Amino acid sequence: MSSSSLSSSADVLHPIDLISLPYKLHITDGRILSGILISIDDQSNLLVSNVLETNGDITRELGLVSVPKSTISKIYVDDNEWNKNIRYRVKKQSNE
Amino acid sequence: MTEILQENLSKLSINDKDTLKSSETKITSQVNPTVSSRANLKVFTDVTDSFFKIASKIPFGEVVKSNQFKLLEGTHALEILNPKLDSALLDLTDFDISSVKTLDEVNWIMMKLLGCLCSWLDNNSLSVSVLSCVYIQKLLLNYQNLEDPKLTFDEKPNGDVTDVILRAFSLGLLQFVKFVLKLGQSGVIYEEEDLNTQTMDLDFLTKVDVAETDNDLKVAIELIESNYGNEDGCNFCLKMLRLFEELLKCESLLSVNADLYTHSEFDSTFLSRQLQLLSELKDQQTYLDSLKEIPNCFSVNIQRQLNNRSPPKPLSCLPFAVSVESLIGMSNDLVSITKILEITDVIELYEYLTCFMNRRLNTNDPDEIIGNHVVARALMQLFLIRDDRSILGSRKWFISDMMLDLLYKVSLQNSKLSKIDTMPGFEVNDISYQKLLAQLESPFYNYLTSISQNPSRQRQFINKELILWDTLQVEAENFELELNPKLNDNFIDSNIPTMPVSSFVYYFKLVRMIELMFKSIELNLFKDLREINIGYWFLSYLIGYLTQHIVRLLDINRLRQTQISNYPKKIKKAKGDKKLKLKEEYESHKVYLDQFLRVETYLKYQMNKMELYKKLIELKLTTLQILNHQGYLKLSKLCRAPEELLFELQLKSYQSIGIPQLPTFKDYQDSLTKFNEVFDVLYKQKNFRYFKSFIVTKNDEINDDLEKLKELASDLHYNQLLTDDMMESFSLLKTSSLSSQETLSTLLKLLESEGPKALKVTIEKLNYHLYFPNISIELQ
């Protein structure tokens, strides 16, 4: 992903657009949490639902998980869903 | 503006292509059978920086969330890397399952597993109790192995003590857990409040038949009997295996199909055997104390390894003696359920269900009110009411039939209204009448379901039921008042209509209103003396209405008896066809004479009970109102809410009730003022003779009432279990009466000798009737 596209998505998307998308969160201890983001606060702490935790060979369901910003090393998002949101915002802006 | 947007779009399309090519910034979700398919075949992009940049736009103090999500739900979230909430931070321990070789070691594990089972039934989760055992975990994981399901601990079992005995025991235990899970998931009791049914998504032997497990238990028993001597270890092991053989038979209660009041046969000997085995197991404590602990056999591993929506929790296992006592309690409660088959009529059944609902285990903890065992509660409802709304699976008795039976017994029998379907010219009225009867089923069903609830939920159910009874009362009264000029079913020599349906509805409404307030006292909802005083004062008011209404029901009952006894005179005077008709009517009516006499005894019993309650309340109210005079019922200075508002809030459940109307705060204040004025004069003179003689009088009256109650209870010929429960209740009422008298007497003595000094007032529940806890008073 180029730096220009980063700035574009960050400029175009609103915080509400981050909600309800499927993410993979890489945690500082090496775990990966996959789930749907349902809430985010002003400190970028996340609430993720339907979480699947992958820890080495073990994958298990955790349900609703709160992920403090300090524990996140990387955030991956479903490409299609993310781009759909960008397209929606761009189209909305062009209509305005 | 448009140009910038176009540029953004073009950047986006380039970016799409770039990201598709890039392998460093993308991960494709792995294809893993345990991972939900929703995650498959998706391309994920690293958006860390953009994400945080967008999130930084959230204004200070705000939260952005999905519309469907309620922030309150967020309190249940598990926080990552928080040691108190993240089960992934738990330390794993190693345990070699082949290390257990001896019978003593197996016995130790079985003892612990029994403790874990009872801990689960005591409302802990399976993950901290039963599933914490490495053998149980292995067995369940091997069972649900998709490629090669096995019901063994090991890949290659070698037939040693663990493979035969511990395996059979574990299977027996898991079958019992499966049965209780089925009860818990049936919607009768509440998840987490009564039982935790979270299974960590493990399959609890859904496809393993109980008979198969029973056979495994038998094989294990035979193995011990043939290979081991009569030592303590061998005896213990045999008893534990046999206990689970018997416990697995509890499910048979759900397959009983019986008609009410027919004394149907049911082989409940397994419950006696359970109790016998548990009593014998209690004596094995010395042997169990000699067993060595097996480290790491029970661990938190499963909390870290399997699907887990709960925070990490320490393991929970009840001591063996406590577990045995708990199972004895359960078996005894199950025995009492089977007694329903011995019941002879709806009056006894109603009284039995009320008694079952109000059974409590006395504890020292003022906030802990323990009802029947959770297994018995859930089983009771499923045993009593079946999916097709039949009672006990009968083809003749449904909820509506039982309700009608009760209605007939209490007030409708031989009334003109009950024959409306055969009376010409009443066809339209009959339709309305049938509709009214159908409506009665709703509050009655609510009552039937409330008996299986825990004490707090029982109160909630009653609260809900009051509105239903109240609405029905209005409808029933309108219907009967409108119809009566045509029916002319009045009391003898008067124009007062009997109104049997309304009378029945009003009776149950008043009974439930009183129960609601008593349950608030039982549940310790009233936290200060002022609230307790309001509670008892309102109860006294309600009981006044109920006793008046029971007199009315007794009058209806006696009217019907008189009508039957008047038939011979009428027949004598009549001639021809009329004589024959009257004879027929007499024959059909007189068969109910015994029933009327029985209901009369029942109503007298209820009347007596309410009068006894009223006298006990008078003792309590006198004590509380003297304390009020001394300033102990005043609101705290910190309380900003007006007393009137608090009064209204406390009695809010009754505000929507039409009759009896809720007394006003002024009525309450007036009663306090009146007492204060009289007491003030006596207090200044230190003349408490009136109160001293009041105590003596109440003592005599209460003793007389208790004697009468015992006589009436014996005349009702209830089954032994119900009679025993009633006698126990009388004994507690007696204790409460004595303590109330003593408290009032102590208070008067203190005021007489010490004058106005600081008093310490405490509420004590242990060993007192739960509706009448002791108010203990001493000098501070």
Automatic annotation (TrEMBL), chain A:
Q: Which Pfam families match?
A: LSM (PF01423)
Q: Which InterPro entries match?
A: LSM_dom_sf, Sm_dom_euk/arc
Ranges in a coiled coil: none
- Where does the Sm domain lie? 27-68
According to its record, what are the GO cellular component terms?
A: protein-containing complex
- Domain of life, per UniProt, equals Eukaryota
- Residues annotated as signal peptide: none
What this protein is called in its record is: Sm domain-containing protein
Specify the species: [Candida] arabinofermentans NRRL YB-2248
Q: What is the lineage of its organism?
A: Eukaryota, Fungi, Dikarya, Ascomycota, Saccharomycotina
From TrEMBL, chain B:
Record domain NAA35-like N-terminal: where: 61-212
Q: What Gene Ontology terms describe where this protein resides (cellular component)?
A: NatC complex
Record keyword ATP-binding present: no
- Does the keyword Aminoacyl-tRNA synthetase feature in the UniProt annotation? no
Q: Which InterPro entries match?
A: NAA35-like_N, Naa35_N, TPR_NAA35
Q: Which domain of life is it from?
A: Eukaryota
Give one Pfam hit by family name.
TPR_NAA35
**Locate the NAA35-like TPR repeats domain: which residues?**
373-694
Keyword annotations for this protein, in alphabetical order, are: Cytoplasm
* Similarity-based family: Belongs to the MAK10 family.
- Which PANTHER family does the entry link to? GLUCOSE REPRESSIBLE PROTEIN MAK10, N-ALPHA-ACETYLTRANSFERASE 35, NATC AUXILIARY SUBUNIT
The name on file for this protein is Uncharacterized protein
Q: Which organism is it from?
A: [Candida] arabinofermentans NRRL YB-2248
